[in-house]
Amino acid sequence: MAKGHRSQIKRERNANKDTRPSAKLSYARVSVQKACFVLDAIRGKDVKTALAILAYNPRYASTVIEKLLKSAIANAENNNGMNPDNLFIEECYADKGPTMKRIRPRAQGRAYRIEKRTSHITIVLNER
Question: Name one GO biological process term (predicted).
Answer without folding.
Answer: translation
